[in-house]
Specification:
Elements (H helix, E strand, L loop, with lengths): L2 H16 L5 E4 L2 E4 L1 E4 L2 E13 L2 E10 L6 H6 L4 E7 L3 E2 H15 L2 H6 L1 H12 L3 E2 L4 E7 L3 E6 L2 E7 L2 H12 L8 H5 L4
Antiparallel strand pairs: 1-2, 3-4, 4-5, 5-6, 6-9, 7-8, 9-10, 10-11
Helix pairs in contact: 3-5, 3-6
Length: 194
């Protein structure tokens, strides 16, 4: 190998090392990309974990934010888009998923907060009524886009209407991050603690 070829090889290696890595985090066999794009803005994986109920793994969830945050207050205050990405690890009826959603929301919000976002809670409930069940491998995304609202996607297809209030999205986040999270081991995982 001559000097010029060696120099080109070293320069190419240095450039590759300087490029951002797009590695994936594996959670229970589900891959969460380190970064994604929502509403044209890059988001970073804040954390990911598994929701278990009794001994059953129900779904893997990842939280994406513009910047990594380690406290609930910081997550709820983040400007810009956000995403909660869920991949089902078992089949769950939409009735059961909707009930778990409402139970988590009720446990982590006050009656006054729920009354303010009641129309959006109702719309969100209608989203689950459109699908008889969430099957193993289904991917559910809940995106918040500033000046637009919350949009739900199932396997990349829009579900339901846009829900405009950020208070609604924050109430949904508290299902996993609130004082009474649906899974006490998932909360620190989404906050990047493990």
């Amino acid at each position: 190998m001559n000097r010029r070829t060696t120099l080109r090889t070293l320069v190419a290696a240095a450039l590759l090392a300087a490029m951002p890595a797009f590695a994936a985090v594996d959670v229970a066999g589900v891959k969460f990309d380190d970064s994604i794009t929502v509403a044209g803005q890059p988001l970073k994986l804040n954390g990911a974990g598994v929701r278990t109920k009794v001994i059953f793994k129900v779904y893997a969830a990842g939280l994406y934010l513009t910047d990594k945050k380690t406290t609930v207050a910081e997550v709820l205050a983040v400007p810009g888009p956000r995403r909660v990405a869920i991949t089902m690890l078992r089949e769950v009826s939409s009735d059961d998923f909707g009930k778990a959603f409402l139970d988590g929301l009720n446990a982590n919000t006050s009656k006054e907060e729920r009354n303010k976002i009641l129309p959006q809670i109702t719309k969100f409930g209608e989203v689950f009524a459109q699908t008889p069940a969430l099957k193993k491998g289904d991917q559910l995304s809940l995106d918040w886009t500033p000046n637009e609202g919350t949009q739900c996607y199932l396997n990349g297809k829009k579900l339901g209407e846009l829900m405009p209030d950020q208070a609604f999205y924050n109430a949904v986040l508290r299902i996993w991050l609130g004082d009474k999270p649906v899974d006490s081991s998932l909360k620190p995982a989404l906050l990047g603690e493990k």
